[in-house]
Write the structure tokens for this entry.
Amino acid sequence: MKAKLITLATVIAATSFISAPVAANDQLALSICSYVAADSKNNLRKTLSDNRLRLRNVYDGIVCDGLPLVRHAIKHNAADAAGFIISQLPGSQVAASGDIEWATSNGFAASPIIAAIKERSAS
């Protein structure tokens, strides 16, 4: 009985340590999404810096309202934040993303962000 209690306590303790970083990562992603939607490039940059993250390393893991960061920025007309995001990603990744086609098919063809994507894709 005592061994089972110790085992149960160990499992509960281990689970609480495992779930804490996930919650922190969710909060970090939520903050990043909020800063992009608000077109707050400086807060976005500061959050990444404070957490010692490179955008190119975490870009694929962040989804905002079901959209990648650049598309989320296009949807919210966040040109400054989008420019920062695009500048931090490799040109080949920006070119292969399909963001231009998505923007065109969803009514965002006139967005100034499309020009930044085209410029970065060319480099």
Q: What stands out?
A: The longest strand covers residues 63-64. Residues 2-37 form the longest helix (36 residues). The chain has eight helices and two strands.
